[in-house]
Amino acid sequence: MTLPLVEQFQYGLDAPICLTWELTYACNLSCVHCLSSSGRRDPRELSTAECKAVIDELERMQVFYVNIGGGEPTVRPDFWELVDYATAHHVGVKFSTNGVKITPSVAQRLAQSDYVDVQISLDGATADVNDAVRGTGSYATALRAMENLAAAGFKGFKISVVVTRHNAGQLDDFKAIADRYGAQLRLTRLRPSGRGADVWDELHPTAAQQRQLYDWLVAHGENVLTGDSFFHLAAYGESLPGLNLCGAGRVVCLIDPVGDVYACPFAIHDNFLAGNVRSLGGFTTVWRESELFADLRHPQTSGACTSCSAFDSCRGGCMAAKFFTGLPLDGPDPECVKGHGAQALSTVDGGVTPRPSGDHSHRRVALSIGRRPPDRACDESPLAGLAR
Amino acid sequence: MSTETAFDLDAPWQIHPQVSVRPERFGALLYHFGTRRLSFLKSPALLNVVRELDTASSARAACTTAGIAAAELPSYQGALATLARSQMIRARSES
What we know:
The structure holds two protein chains of two kinds.
Chain A: H1 5-10, E1 18-24, H2 48-60, E2 65-70, H3 79-88, E3 92-97, H4 104-111, E4 116-121, H5 127-134, H6 138-151, E5 158-163, H7 171-180, E6 184-189, H8 196-203, H9 207-220, E7 254-255, E8 260-262, E9 273-276, H10 282-289, H11 291-296, H12 311-314, H13 319-324, H14 340-345
Parallel strand pairs in A: 1-2, 1-7, 2-3, 3-4, 4-5, 5-6
Antiparallel strand pairs in A: 7-8, 8-9
Helix pairs in contact in A: 4-6
Chain B: E1 13-15, E2 19-24, E3 27-32, E4 37-41, H1 44-53, H2 59-65, H3 73-85, E5 89-91
Antiparallel strand pairs in B: 1-5, 2-3, 3-4
């Protein structure tokens, strides 16, 4: 054995270990922290045939599974067709959903496949906390989906929670919900990406909550998944289960609904755009030959962090979190447990933080109903009085 | 924390049928579609051993075919025990 695995992974792999594929920007919800600023479908989204061609490539590259998300992926009319196509081609599917389409019959179908895993998003253990972030009625929708999956005998589906200031005190309650449905809890980090940039300041956990979260995760070990999301917390001491490195462009990446390939799901910005699956050579060429990914696979400069005693554990934290909070990439993570991030943030000019490249949010059309009475009682034309 | 279960080198073993193996420069990636867990083989030599399991009469024979020296056997036994615990490999019933 030569280098430890983490060192090996820093130089990248011939194919990603897994990748995130957002199938559509369309979504029935408008979560305030949506990573991909989803809402409306993009007219340029990949067609069914194009999606199948990507799956063919993933099969050739031996990508074991894809994390399908969105938007709400199940609202694509060809969603189930693509899931079936992927599993028939030895590409496992784990998809994230708010649960809107997980009816009893869909749940039955899902329970029968070893190659499909489901992840229901829930951002509060109670309706009030959840719905404040994900929208009115979304808690009920998610719980109904969980009931349907459990009733169908689907064991070990995932309940995925983005940890915020408002739900950080509910970790035991989330675990109880997961246990009730025979599901597995997955906690992930709130990223200042997409619409998340607008709410990060008020929603990201406090330093004290971060510490409690870390202790809770250490106590629960491998029974609670984290998607390697909290490796910056390793600076507290013991590492959490997982690879504990930034996998962007090295072992993971994102394919967005229009086929753009980004270094990671939290970095939808031109600076992290490696190419497009529609270009010559497809995804394989982007993964293996893009200049951006080649750069990311070189040892990164980590500035002042290099001299920190915790650097070997946290490796400077999350690239996307730094980028979208306006911090330099070769400095501390905004949520650095040593407090260096908070200090660095205090010097950032809020007006210059980078904005995500796309915004597919539902348009908030300002509907105002004219309350002005007609100028004269006999004015029947709807335009009366508006002539000026 | 975990109690070491003895790994029987003299029994026949196989890669779990739900496991997919992807060779890599450092060894290999293993993914179990049933448990949805990922594992790593940290050397090409270990990959060779694992690949021999399906046809070898025993794990010990697989190690021999893969060119593992007797002195190295204990460490391979340990690695195989770990793979067995995570169900990446399983005992093969002789039929």
